[in-house]
Amino acid sequence: MRAALPRALPGLLSALTLAALALLTAQTPTAHAAPAATDVGTVAAALRETPVYVDPAASAQLSTTEADALTKKIKDADKPVFLAVLPADFPTQNLFQNLRTSTGITGLYAIRLGDQFDAKADSAVMSGTAVKNLVTSVQNEDTNTQLNDFTDRALTNIGGAAPASWDSGSTEGGGVSTTALIAVGAVAVAGGAGAYTLVRRNKRRRAEEQRAALDKLRVVVDEDITAFGEELDRLDFHPAEAGADDAMRADYERALDAYEQAKSSMAAAQHPEDVRPVTQALEDGRFSLAQLAARREGRPVPERRAPCFFDPRHGPSVADATWTPSGGATRQVPVCAADRARLADGADPAIREVDTEYGRRPYWDAGPAYGPWAGGYFGGGLLPGLLVGTVLGSMMASPSYAADYGSGYGDFGSAGYDGGDVSGADFDSGDFSGGFGGGGGDFGGGGGDFGGGF
Known about the structure:
With 454 residues, the chain is of the alpha/beta class.
């Protein structure tokens, strides 16, 4: 890859330069000629240089002063928000997806199309639900009010940072200025190698962050695996013992398999999200041991329940108990028999603590790296209610966690791109698919959902 890039670069840069010059010629009208029709490539080229683009045919909707003020607001916030104001007759087939592909930058994209408005975003910077809510909140407003309200609300919870390319040029009045288009040609001269270097640097930074998070998790997970192995060692059961039946042997075999799976999965872990199946295996194994114990003692086989919230090493919970964390709201959490008794007596539960830079802390107050660990034990659907009001819960619900640790509880993003990163065509097209109007449902009117149109 490294060797091939320099050989291919001259031809690529030459083609990009010619394209930029052609674009410049097309967008510089003579005194008597009408401007050429704008296409997605022109919009994308402008948005790579500045966050706001106003098509010449839609200039009556947003003045130069208004566009400049929006541009300044977004740049000052250092966030990847892209705004385009286009005429009502602009081609709409796969517009968002094609614009995102042509721009090649991770971010939040909003388009005012005539008197209609909609937006889409990479899930690394904002969830589909958040985008839909933002779009719904600004319907039926005039262009300037709508774009400012949308931007103000988006800036409060979008992840990532502005693309580096915004520092290299700007457009005046939100349109494609001569300066910006000349910059496209200038960027083409060094842009191929520069973009390649930027992507590599961002990937390297993300890899370093993930390695540090995995190192933290490895200590805790190794403790969990060791604790489960000790439970197996203490188990007074032999498959051939008197009274053992096939169900007991199956429980025992599943527990052993879970132990081996946890060890092998942790040994192969390369990223923090790889920890989730490890703790899921341990949770499965402990439930198998609970089933085995019930069968041997002649008790009813227990129903599947989440592990003890205070420390999953305690095994499956037996009930839900009321608990109020320090400074937080009261909630119901799954507890083991021992912690249920402690709470009933007014005592503190036996809480799992981990090492942090501030000393030993409960895992839910130890930082975002423990999201994958907790996600394997409790699953994404249960975690939000359990962790609300805690440090980990607050982090996992934020866009910055979505950017750094993935959009779901305990999941890192697979692509490894943050907001404002140059990803080219490497993005989830489902986030941007669908068209305007008849091509993909109704445009505007509530934001729609990614993949299903508007």
